[in-house]
């Protein structure tokens, strides 16, 4: 059974940075495509970033150029670093792997 646990969210001022983590169990992140999505209040779920099992990465237009997705095979964790955070980045961020979702971590960008 796959379990995903996100962490690292919080309240941050505009221009700040956050590093989100997705700890996986039940499947190896090194052998799967892992995605980060986000959902803002009143909006649909939006793809933020993907890391493929071969290590290739893909970013949504909203975070391209200021975010980095990476993985740590030793801890079976996928990280998402977002810099220069904006109020419109406020959302719940979810990790997704092989049709499994985590519970999400709240990111709020506000002064």
What labels would you give this structure?
single chain, 111 residues, mainly beta, seven-stranded mixed β-sheet, 11 strands
Structure description:
This protein is mainly beta. The protein is 0% helix and 52% strand. It contains no helices and eleven strands. The chain has strands at 3-7, 10-12, 18-25, 34-39, 45-51, 57-59, 67-72, 77-82, 91-97, 100-101, 105-109. Strands 2, 4, 5, 6, 9, 10 and 11 form a seven-stranded mixed beta sheet that branches. A hairpin with a 4-residue loop joins strand 7 and strand 8. The protein is globular and about 40 Å long. The mean pLDDT is 97.
Secondary structure elements and their pairing?
Layout: E1 3-7, E2 10-12, E3 18-25, E4 34-39, E5 45-51, E6 57-59, E7 67-72, E8 77-82, E9 91-97, E10 100-101, E11 105-109
Parallel strand pairs: 2-11
Antiparallel strand pairs: 1-3, 3-8, 4-5, 4-9, 5-6, 7-8, 9-10, 9-11
Structure at a glance:
With 111 residues, the chain is mainly β. The chain is built from no helices and 11 strands.
Q: What characteristic shape results from the CA principal axes?
A: globular
Beta-strand percentage range: over 45%
Number of helices: 0
State the distance separating the first and last CA atoms.
40 Å
Estimated radius of gyration: 13 Å
The helix content, as a percent range, equals under 10%
Order of helices and strands: EEEEEEEEEEE
Question: Strand pairing plus helix content: what structural class?
Answer: mainly beta
Mean pLDDT: 97
Residue windows where pLDDT falls under 50 for at least 5 positions? none
How is the main sheet built?
Answer: 7 strands, mixed
């Amino acid at each position: 059974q796959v379990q995903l646990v996100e962490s690292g969210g919080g309240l941050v001022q505009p221009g700040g940075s956050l590093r989100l983590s997705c700890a996986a169990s039940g499947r190896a992140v090194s052998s799967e495509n892992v995605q980060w999505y986000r959902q803002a209040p009143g909006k649909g779920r939006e793809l933020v970033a993907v890391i493929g099992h071969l290590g290739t990465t893909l970013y949504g237009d909203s975070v391209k150029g200021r975010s980095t997705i990476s993985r740590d095979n030793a801890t079976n964790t996928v990280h998402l670093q977002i810099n220069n955070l904006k109020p419109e980045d406020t959302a719940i961020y979810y990790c997704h792997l092989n049709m499994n979702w985590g519970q999400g971590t709240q990111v709020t960008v506000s002064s």
